[in-house]
């Protein structure tokens, strides 16, 4: 098929490169000249493992290209995907990029060679595709529903493993305005072998939010349990969760051994969830509930629990050091999780801010965050180039992402360079690392120091 994609952010570019590798001809439309030039030169403007190789392979095969010309891209194409951002703006998601994309696509619909299907991949609350998008398309094209196809097809990509998530999907959810639209989207994913669910537009929209809300609830449950363990001497959240997970309803019998579903390895107590998706989507669902007159006390509690975690970690540092005022603290990890340079709603930044406001001297190291990215986020001068320089003469270190580089480091050497070898492990990444005897190790979710 010939595919137009509007938006070259995470979703747009990953989708484009992956669909091209499946034999489709993809044209991504980008208005920013700088971004367009970067992508055209085979350079992904953000950090995502494996994406650049795939993009370049697509370009080399002639199946992937980027252009500023929406009309040219759409004329020959069968389907247009809207993959623009819907960032939070106050209480509501900002739908202006979506509306603009729908208007521009609508303006080109009549010029398309044949029946054209518009697919919303952006995350939007139920009703947005049927109302805002469809009406905008109709208004701009003068066509009636049915004269063009309309679908909502949510993405379930995780930063850091987005290419794999796209190539090996758990499921493909196809929200369809009518079955003809659904057929087009199903054909687009013809080469992907997983269950494809044909649902209403609203069910597709809600599934996306529900999926992130479920993860947030589960993470917050683990974190609340961690807080309870931290207040209970002789308990360890890892042990309690381990016991819990052996319930056969969570880990059923397999042919040879118990099956441990991936969600149980994903779920770890920590410093709270962040990123551009979970916090924004939980909030959007709460606001949507309010608009529908539906109370969402559980989602409200998730937000409260999540906001408590960074403070809990700061409290651990204060207790371990007898106050953090004028103490030098090294933060290992700035991004919202390991394997990405994304600083949006990063809990590490909340910890950094809280420590700073208590008079601590904070420095940070994150192997994925370049000095330029840190500078852009206003963190200039705070980042160190290596673990060694971050930890040198520090009074404590706080681990805030589960980067394998932290686990694999030589902690005997590192702690020897610290003024006081206090290690606060906000991600329990050093649990199985042998630390020197003199180190004081405080993992998350433990009633007391381990070493
Ligand atoms: C999340 C979802 O996992 C994807 O399925 C979804 O497609 C994506 O949002 C999206 O909406 O686009 P992502 O934001 O990349 O993906 O990150 P996750 O790996 O889910 O982690 C989110 C946050 O939760 C991170 O801050 C992470 O450190 C934290 N987390 C995760 C925990 O604190 N504990 C855990 O047990 C798991």
Observed structural traits:
451 residues, alpha/beta, Rossmann fold, 2 domains, 8-stranded mixed beta sheet, 5-stranded parallel beta sheet, 15 strands, 43% helix, globular, binds uridine-5'-diphosphate-glucuronic acid
Structural account:
The protein has two domains: 198 residues, 3-Layer(aba) Sandwich (Rossmann fold); 229 residues, NAD(P)-binding Rossmann-like Domain (Rossmann fold, 3-Layer(aba) Sandwich). It is built from 18 helices and 15 strands. The strands form three sheets. An eight-stranded mixed beta sheet has the order 3-2-1-4-7-8-9-10, sandwiched between helices. Strands 12-11-13-14-15 form a five-stranded parallel beta sheet. Strand 5 and strand 6 form a beta hairpin. The structure holds uridine-5'-diphosphate-glucuronic acid. The site of uridine-5'-diphosphate-glucuronic acid has 21 residues, from helix 9.
CATH class of the largest domain: Alpha Beta
Distance between the termini: 60 Å
Shape: globular
Let me know the CATH homologous superfamily of the largest domain.
Answer: NAD(P)-binding Rossmann-like Domain
Strand-pairing-aware structural class: alpha/beta
Characterize the main sheet. Answer: 8 strands, mixed
From the 3D structure, determine the CATH topology of the largest domain.
Rossmann fold
Q: How many helices in DSSP terms?
A: 18
Q: Provide mean pLDDT, rounded.
A: 95
Based on CA atoms alone, the radius of gyration comes out at 24 Å
Could you list the spans in which at least 5 consecutive residues all have pLDDT below 50? none
Q: Major sheet: order of its strands?
A: 3-2-1-4-7-8-9-10
Helix content: 40-55%
What is the domain total for the residues?
2
Task: Using the 3D structure, state the CATH architecture of the largest domain.
Answer: 3-Layer(aba) Sandwich
Strand composition percent? 5-15%
Unique ligands: uridine-5'-diphosphate-glucuronic acid
Q: How many strand segments?
A: 15
